[in-house]
Write a structure and sequence with these properties.
The protein is mainly beta. It has five helices and 34 strands. The strands form seven sheets. Strands 9, 10, 12, 14, 15, 16 and 18 form a seven-stranded mixed sheet that branches. Strands 22-21-27-32-29-30 form a six-stranded mixed sheet, with no helix packed on it. Strand 19 and strand 20 form a beta hairpin. It is globular and about 70 Å long.
């Protein structure tokens, strides 16, 4: 399908206007991206599949940016169905309209475009984007996001010789439409067929290092279901950053990366010059899926040798202990020059505690999942638009309890209410026998504790109230709980979801409405001028051009 020339012309006008405005006001820099989303044939596991490509690429192109940059991303939908992109870990400060999930943003119709206007305000680190509708994530459409520190902000390690995005994830040979139909029919998904590294199957991915140099790998699990373990034969990995937080620089021989999570590690080419295995394998699964890539030393002729290095398989304690060892570097600067440890989250009084428990069951004879007994169903209008235009009967704040109810699953558009500028605790309780992974849009939170059994108020005695890692996606182990602390400083409608994508699709998600009566743009930006309006918001006005 040809590109919309009118949309491109409009973007160029926007580019010129933004550039002139930035020059006059010394505004933060602008970066412009023009993306065309298409179907295309891909063969990651040796069979032809219908993939989702961005500018002909699978995975999509990286977004390279610097703290506070304004990102103008014009997305043209050349698919035959509606499409949206969301930005995992990008906080969309005061602007949930741009979040790119159906609860906040109207889909892009086929043959049309949407220009996202994002600012990576006060953020650094490693993240990714992905398609959020219709199980598109199983077809591709994802890519890496990196936010570099501003030049005057110190970084707690020397500049690496190279900086690589490494997207790992489980994968199916079936097309996404087949998988979606399977779920729509009320069935669970079968076991995945393999694991990809940057969209490539076994022995198809490679990196080239020069002897003695150090490289940064930004590893994100963009898969659908499984926690994965990443390792490189005979090489150590020094963890330096997790989803925007500089960490204590702990060295690992392998690293568990749960679904939706992102890590930055430094790897030094300090071994004899030949090829080495890069290995990714599934965790807590039967059977164990494994794929390999190759780390090649530049100028060396030696082939990879020896057995594929083994890793942890089903050991929960091993993973739990590793998770507890990942802590914030209190003396390092974050996106601002002040040390990360200058925010003393452990000294702030809690305003409220939410306890959220996952649930699985049948509703009307079909498989569903939920949180606190509510299985989420989308409304006919994005919730943020209904809230903005005060459209009644689209959703109800409090439609899901802030505690487990113990009742059977039922369908509703689940929205939790929360007040702006409060400090809250969220406990994820997992009574099931699988590892879960939860993500909250719009925020970074402190992972203060995780342990086995049922959470009780006495569990707070074991919290890390000094240097817990701040991130946006956390795991919850089987029969266990994870607790987070969160400063609700970002007004909006924010998606809280499992990253187990079939469970998300079948209802294990909700929206957290962070509310203030203030209408100041210091608290929340007005609706974008170019916002698409759909459902019961159709025909209304955004803002004057």
């Amino acid at each position: 399908m040809p590109l919309n020339l009118g949309a491109i012309s409009a973007l160029l006008c926007l580019s010129l206007s933004a550039t002139l405005f930035a020059a006059v006001t010394a505004e933060d820099p602008y970066r412009f991206f023009q993306w065309n989303v298409t179907y295309g044939d891909i063969y990651p596991l040796g069979v032809r599949q219908r993939g989702i490509l961005i500018n002909g690429q699978f995975p999509g192109p990286d977004i390279n940016s610097v703290t506070n940059d304004n990102l103008i991303i014009n997305v043209f939908n050349s698919l035959d169905e509606p499409f949206l992109l969301s930005w995992n870990g990008i906080q969309q400060r005061h602007n949930s309209f741009q979040d790119g999930v159906y609860g906040t943003t109207c889909p892009i119709p086929p043959g049309r475009n949407l220009t996202y206007i994002l600012q990576v305000k006060d953020q650094i680190g490693s993240f990714y984007y992905f398609p959020s509708l219709a199980f598109h994530k199983a077809a591709g459409g994802f890519g890496g996001i990196r936010i570099l520190s501003r030049p005057r902000i110190p970084v707690p390690f020397p500049d690496p010789s190279g900086d690589y995005t490494v997207l790992i994830g489980d994968w199916y040979k079936s097309n996404h439409t087949t998988l979606k139909a399977h779920l729509d029919g009320g069935k669970k998904l079968p076991f995945p067929d393999g694991i990809l590294i940057n969209g490539r199957g076994p022995n198809q991915f490679s990196l080239t290092f020069e002897q003695g140099k150090t490289y940064r790998l930004r590893i994100s699990n963009v898969g659908l279901q499984h926690s994965l373990n990443f390792r490189i034969q005979n090489h150590k990995m020094k963890l330096v950053e997790v989803e925007g937080t500089h960490t204590l620089q702990t060295t690992y021989s392998s690293l568990d990366v749960h679904v939706g999570q992102s890590y930055s590690v430094l790897v030094t080419a300090d071994q004899p010059g030949h090829d080495y295995y890069i290995v990714v394998s599934s965790r807590f699964s039967t059977p164990i899926l494994t794929t390999t890539g190759i780390l090649h030393y530049s100028g060396a002729g030696g082939q990879v040798s020896g057995p594929i290095p083994g890793g942890p398989t089903i050991q929960i304690d091993w993973s739990l202990n590793q998770a507890r060892s990942i802590r914030t570097n209190l003396t390092a600067s974050g996106p601002r020059p002040n040390p990360q440890g200058s925010y003393h989250y452990g000294l702030i009084n809690l305003t409220k505690t939410y306890i959220l428990a996952s649930a699985a069951g049948q509703v009307n004879g079909k498989q569903r999942y939920g949180i606190n007994s509510v299985s989420f169903v989308p409304a006919d209008t994005p919730l943020k638009l209904a809230d903005y235009y005060k459209i009644s009967e689209v959703f109800r704040v409090g439609s899901v309890s802030d505690r487990p109810t113990g009742g059977n699953l039922y369908l509703d558009t689940s929205v939790l209410g929360a007040d702006y500028r409060t400090f809250v605790e969220i406990v994820f309780q997992n009574d099931e026998d699988i590892v879960q992974s939860y993500h909250l849009d719009g925020y970074q939170f402190f992972v203060v504790g995780m342990d086995g059994g049922k959470w009780t108020p006495a569990s707070r005695n074991g919290y890390n109230l000094r240097d817990a890692v701040a991130r946006s996606t956390t795991q919850v182990y089987p029969g266990s709980w994870t607790a987070i602390y969160l400063s609700l400083d970002n007004v909006g409608m924010w998606n809280l979801r499992t990253e187990f994508w079939a469970r998300q699709y079948l209802g294990q998600q909700l929206y957290l409405r962070v509310y203030t009566a203030s209408t100041s743009i210091r608290d929340e930006y007005p609706i974008p001028r170019n916002a698409r309006l759909c459902g019961r918001a159709s025909g209304r006005r955004t803002r004057p051009l």
